[in-house]
């Protein structure tokens, strides 16, 4: 089983989505199930409703999963297994106060060394532990040997016991810390491959050490994907960045298929530039992913979105634009030279259908054309339409074309009227109302 494990701490961004997509693709390739695990143990950072939003986004992208679990639901296992570790002397009660730990941190800083726990409580006798009447955390003992693992993308890693340290697994309130809950859950759900962002590389030896200590010997494969950076700030994308939020991109009119295409293409060797997820499942290889971080390039996404919009079925596009007429889908595609999203196409359509004022400098001509069209019979062809208006109004040349374009499209430039007309001829009454 594979897993995608988001925290419900903000809007899902495209860095998170890329991880979800790669897990989905690999679950299909390996013919294994995908688990969604909502990592909600850090109560203070959780935001109400974000879990539901994440699941809605996964559905929108057709990322199908076998089940959803909430990490907080496994508290009893986290605690039970911590007791097991304590009884086996692989973990110990730590009574060190926050103040003392802060002092150790300060000392390490002064010496230019990384902070490590000094091991004081590791050697307390059982009797001493029983006699101390103070709150305690549970720490796992650091490993005796180096923790090694191979990342399928980044190669071999080797961490000394000093790197791993004796770290807290249960807090004072006996809730699990991030690494502990994560390691236990990956074991409980029989996860075979962990695909996540490289911000988790340093967590991996700790999580392996926890499972080793619990006697779990099934090897889990690891893939740490490069981080996607915010193009403007050059920093790791965060759930607080609006313009990388998946919700925002969808609201702007980017198609899920295009966003997925962009995210799989980004920093990857692919046989073509434009593809669907189903196609990507055919040829996807972890080893083709670049190990360097990538910047989110919205212009590239706009280009890919245009391509997917142009490939959409006309009726489907029209429905996405709020109509149910394939002619409107065809019309929408005409605007793809200048529009890249559903929202931008919709803006052009709105200009056609909203009530017009008057074309500047051609007020009289505009009125004449409007009146003429209001009384016109149904005209099939644009050449005939021009002829008809000229016959009725004597307008021609610039005096005909400028106001006519304005009357039909609500603007002074854009695709050829002869290209637009076939798709709007059925709506003429509405357009000149
Ligand atoms: N900028 C990023 N690029 C690529 N992957 C990322 C990025 N940020 C997070 N991830 C990955 O997204 C997955 C879900 O993580 P999580 O929900 O904790 O997101 P987060 O953005 O790190 O959240 P928070 O900012 O609240 O810690 C993890 O596998 C994480 O490694």
UniProtKB/TrEMBL annotation:
Give residue ranges for domain Glutamyl/glutaminyl-tRNA synthetase class Ib catalytic. Answer: 3-302
Keyword check for Nucleotide-binding, yes or no.
Answer: yes
Q: Record-annotated residues binding ATP?
A: 239
Place the motif 'HIGH' region on the sequence: 6-16
Using the record's annotation, list all stretches that form the Aminoacyl-tRNA synthetase class I anticodon-binding domain.
324-421
Q: Which GO terms describe its biological process?
A: glutamyl-tRNA aminoacylation
Q: What is its EC number?
A: 6.1.1.17
Q: Which InterPro entries match?
A: aa-tRNA-synth_I_cd-bd, aa-tRNA-synth_I_codon-bd_sub2, aa-tRNA-synth_I_CS, aa_tRNA-synth_I_cd-bd_sf, Glu-tRNA-ligase_bac/mito, Glu/Gln-tRNA-synth, Glu/Gln-tRNA-synth_Ib_cat-dom, GluQ/Sye
Q: Which GO terms describe its molecular function?
A: ATP binding; glutamate-tRNA ligase activity; tRNA binding
Record keywords: Aminoacyl-tRNA synthetase, ATP-binding, Cytoplasm, Ligase, Nucleotide-binding, Protein biosynthesis
Q: List where in the cell it is found.
A: Cytoplasm
Task: Give the main location.
Answer: cytoplasm
Pfam families, sorted = Anticodon_2, tRNA-synt_1c
> Where is the motif ('KMSKS' region)?
236-240
| Reactions catalysed | tRNA(Glu) + L-glutamate + ATP = L-glutamyl-tRNA(Glu) + AMP + diphosphate
Would you tell me the Gene Ontology cellular component terms? cytosol
Q: Does the keyword tRNA-binding apply?
A: no
What family does this chain come from, according to its entry?
Answer: Belongs to the class-I aminoacyl-tRNA synthetase family. Glutamate--tRNA ligase type 1 subfamily.
PANTHER family in alphabetical order = GLUTAMATE--TRNA LIGASE, GLUTAMATE--TRNA LIGASE, MITOCHONDRIAL-RELATED
Job of this protein: Catalyzes the attachment of glutamate to tRNA(Glu) in a two-step reaction: glutamate is first activated by ATP to form Glu-AMP and then transferred to the acceptor end of tRNA(Glu).
Under the subunit heading, UniProt states: Monomer.
HAMAP family from the xrefs? Glu_tRNA_synth_type1
Q: What is this protein called?
A: Glutamate--tRNA ligase
